[in-house]
Amino acid sequence: MRIAYLVFAYKNPRLLERVIGTLSSEDCSFFIHIDQKSNIKEFSRIRGKNVFFSEQRIPVYWAEFSGVQAILLLIRQALQGPQDYDYLVLLSGSDYPIRSARYIHTFLEEHRGLEFINIVKMPNEAAGKPISRINTLRIQSNKPYRRMAVRVMAKVGLAHRDYRKYLGSVEPYAGNTWWALTRDACQYILEFVERNQHVKSFFQNVFAPEETFFHTILGNSPFRSQTRRNLVYEDWSVSGAHPAMINDQHLAFFESQEKVEISDAYGSGELVFARKFSDESPDLLQRIDGMIGRKDGVQKAMAR
Could you give the angle at which helices 282-303 and 248-255 cross, rounded to 10 degrees? Predict the structure, then answer.
């Protein structure tokens, strides 16, 4: 089982260095995109024969298509990489594993062929994915004057559009940004984008397209029947546009069960990563490392 970790980051260099140290093995590589607006020198300590930084760097803006562009860049880089990776796993720069590298490799081997991505057909109120997410026109930051004009139009209800006029028979799907996809699914995504530029153009002007673009492609593909919920724990119980930072209560939840499993609008499944962490949480990460070691020890004892 060969894994390519695609890391989409802009800060937390010490956390990222630790993630790579925790997940590294002979059968994985790390492809890292650092936001062009960030200081790349802060990541200079991160090195290794299995670590590849994207030479092309995109200025990424929150909830805009620039995020999709960076992810597509990482997919292409991994598929052109030195190994034929079985899975490509997309992580943010604030993720950390809650199981060992060996456990994650075994998990993906045992579930080979499944696509781990949170995905629901839009609209889906239970998952917080109304159709307005894509039907409301949203202009990117690199077009400030048009962006301002559309914001004014939106206030009086004039920034609405019907996705069916643009997507035709393609039905919209949505979910969360993070996923673990097979090589075949990632290759399909790239080929779909090349064949369907009108779909790409449509998603350039929606809110948070990284939560709909890849999902819509896979939702309308043969891979849809193989999808399962993603592998990343996030706590969205707090108000606001971002999940809660992982704290002692979350760690107690992880420790309370051998396999961290949840069930929600995206289905039931096991989680092997969590977010959000930062460079300011080394003590918590040390405790998570201890938990990982204890769980691995229990597994070894049970296997004897």
Answer: 0
pLDDT band for 301, please (50, 70, 90 cuts): low
pLDDT > 80? residue 303: no
Q: How many CB atoms lie within 10 A of CB 68?
A: 23
For 35-92, how does the pLDDT look when each residue is reduced to its tens digit (9 = 90+)? 999 999 999 999 999 999 999 999 999 999 999 999 999 999 999 987 899 999 999 9
Ranges of H-type helices in the chain:
13-23, 65-79, 101-110, 132-135, 144-155, 163-167, 183-195, 197-203, 213-219, 248-255, 282-303
In 10 A of CB 251, how many CB atoms? 17
pLDDT category at 263 given cuts 50, 70, 90 is very high
Calpha distance 132→152 (Å, rounded):
17
In the chain, the amino acid numbered 221 is S
pLDDT for the residue numbered 80: 95
Would you report the helix, strand and coil content of the chain in percent, each value rounded to 5?
40, 20, 40
Indicate the pTM of the whole model. Answer: 0.94
Residue 174's beta-bridge partner residues? 120
